[in-house]
Each structure stands twice: as C-alpha cells, then as structure tokens.
Amino acid sequence: MQESFTDSGVLFRQHQFDLPLNYSEKDGTRITVFAREVVELSKADANLPWLVYFQGGPGFPSPRPDSKSGWLKRALQDHRVLLLDQRGTGMSSPLTHQTLSHMDDAKQVEYISQFRADNIVRDAEAIREALGAEKWSILGQSFGGFCSLTYLSFYPQSLHRVYITGGVPSLTRHADDVYRATYQRVLDKNKAFFDQFPSAQRRCAEIAEFLRTRDVKLPNGQTFTVEQFQQIGINLGRSGANLPMYYLLEEAFTETVQGKALSVSFLQAMLTEQGYQTNPIYAFLHEPIYNQGEASVWSAHRVRNTEYAEFNYEPGKPFLFTGEMVYPWMFDQMQNLLPLKQAAEALAKKSDWPALYDVEKLAENTVPVTCAVYADDMYVEMDYSRETLKGIPNSRAWITNEYEHNGLRADGERILSRLMDMGEQIGNLPS
C-alpha cells in the first residue's frame, strides 16, 4: 500500500518499526509495529510537537479516522499526531488465533505475555528515538490511559504533556476490587435500560429461554448461549446505547415455516459483537492488565459467582446483561478461542507479572497530567481514578457526568480542547 496519501488537506504517512518482542532478549524474536503520522499538509514541513495516541482495549488498533474530525481536528491545529497500532493489533504483527496456532501452549503463554502496557510503552520509546523527538505528548483513551501512566512511571523525561480520557486506573488494587466496582456500575446501567424500556426485560427473558432450550447456531456454526447474549451489555457503557439496543431486541425474532426463530440479522449482529474472536488479546489480557506480582485467577468469574450471582441467569428471575468482563467459559464456547484454552488458563494463574507503575516516581511527577474522569463510567471506577490522581502531583481531573466512557469519540474536539487548556494552566504554575 502507499507510504503516504493526502485527504482534505491532511497528510497521512505510514511508519513501520522493527522491534524486539521481548526487550530483555533483543536478539530474539522481532515484531513489526505500525504507526500512522497525521499532519495538516500546509504544516507538513513545520517543526511541530508530536502527540501520540494510545487506543483503548486492550487488543484493538488505533482508529482509521476521517481527515479532520473529533479530537483529531483539535490536535492537528498545533501537533503532528502519531496513531499507534499497539503491538499485536491492526498492522503491528497482529496477535490472532492464526498467529498462535503453530505454537504449543507454553510458547503461546510466553508470547502473549509480551503484549501488556509495559512493552507497548517500550515500543513507543523506541519509536520516539527513531523519529528524533526529544519529547512528545500523549493522549490515552481507556486502556490507553493505563499505558499513559505506565509511560509516566518509567519514562517521564520523554513526556511533555499527558492527556487521559476515561482511563485512570488504580495503581495498586487487585483485579477483584476492579470487578466489584464495575459489576455495581453494570447493575446501574441495566436498571437505567430496563427502566426506559420495561418491555425489553420480557424480550430478553424470551431470548434467554429460547437459547436455553434450543441449540441455536451463529453464522459461524458456533452454538449461541445465554452467557454470550448477556455480553452485549458491554455496549450499555457508551453514550446513546440504549435505543440501538432496544431496536436490536425488537427485531430479534422472526416467523418461519417451522415456527418462531431468532432472525438471521440478529444472530449476525450477535456474532459481530464477539470481537474476542478476532482480537483475542482482549480475552487473554483483560484481567492481566491489572496484575503486578499476582494472578487474576479469572477474577471477574469468581467475583460474579461469589458476590454478584444475580448475573447468573435463571428462569423466572430478572435478566441482566454483563459488561466488559471476560470469563473462562469463553474458551469453551467461542470458535476461535477453543484452541487457546490451555494458554488462557495458564495466563489466569500466572503470578510473576512485572510492575506496571512506579508509585514512588509518580509521587514526584512534574509532567502536567490532565484527565477526563466520567462520573458514571461503567468500565473505569471514578473513585479509583480519584484515588490514583491524589498521589500524582501536577495532575488535574475534569470530573463530569456529561459523557459516558466513549466521550472522546462522542465529543472529542471539546474534550481534548479542555484537557489541553488545563495542561497549559498547570504548565504555567510557579514551580
């Protein structure tokens, strides 16, 4: 494909970097990391500061944006933007069931373990040096915010400004604490949805019973279960999700010559929801992104069964959607995850994860850090974000209930503008 192209007065330039899979074995396996530079064509030769974008997930590539819209429109006013496909995603040596298929279980575990925030940040540092940038600013959305605080922990000298949206993690808490908090937020979102659409409760129960009593296949031939259906609740944490969810449920059934059936369009939509099938990093590492010297041991599954059993569907009880949690049964049910079950079990038991944050260094921070913290965030607990920021000097939070977790996508130009203004105010304070 083209190394560069222009669209609507904006230059897009591709970069590929040959980097170590494991930075402690620099003569070992190499991977390719892809990043897309974006700059206004009229400023392409100017000495502009860099802004690097870290995507949420984990396990999903950087956006493929329109030329100038949302947060990118604001960023391009005075920055050269780098959209990083974090290792294992997009065009950065993608980690899929296909790439893992030739490895035995132990090799799969060893390989997958290299795709957390610590190595994502090491990649970014290597790229910064390769591009000749003395310092740059970073913008992290969701899991990208986790990466941003890892970056700030280990390479603060490389950072000019840090902007985080919906992604200030706890620095020390176990994953169990995270899921205790987020299950409560998922209950809140369920209540809001079913309060708005009471008939949806009956429809969801009807779908669940249909799945419980029949062998229903998705378009890929995989048996569709109640547990899989519940997982579409991940969407309830995004703005404007309730109405599309209702429309989807409204059209779930169709009449056939054999009687009532789930419609083809509904089943296709359900398969499309299962991003874990094509992006297994999310399924493998969603819990290990919290682990530092400890194992998760299927944290969300344990907490659900011991403290939030109401999420376990039973006929006659209220139906509840789940959120962004991952579960061990996914590796028994989802077609592309089936061959990866043993690796998933080993990763869940792995306890020798290295530290992702340096709390002492963060307590001495001098880099301006500004964050949009969403009061009703279903994915990242506001109280834990506030707890973290109390320990980071030169950080400021804009706490708001105007947006859900996807605020940067919904109103990115305004949000980034505000965070940039806040960062300038911190930078102008007397030392």
From TrEMBL:
Keywords: Hydrolase. Pfam families: Abhydrolase_1. Residues 49-227 form the AB hydrolase-1 domain. Signal peptide: none annotated. SUPFAM superfamilies: alpha/beta-Hydrolases. GO terms for molecular function: hydrolase activity. The keyword Transferase does not apply. It comes from the Bacteria. Transmembrane segments: none annotated. Belongs to the peptidase S33 family. This is Alpha/beta hydrolase. The lineage of its organism: Bacteria, Pseudomonadati, Pseudomonadota, Gammaproteobacteria, Vibrionales.
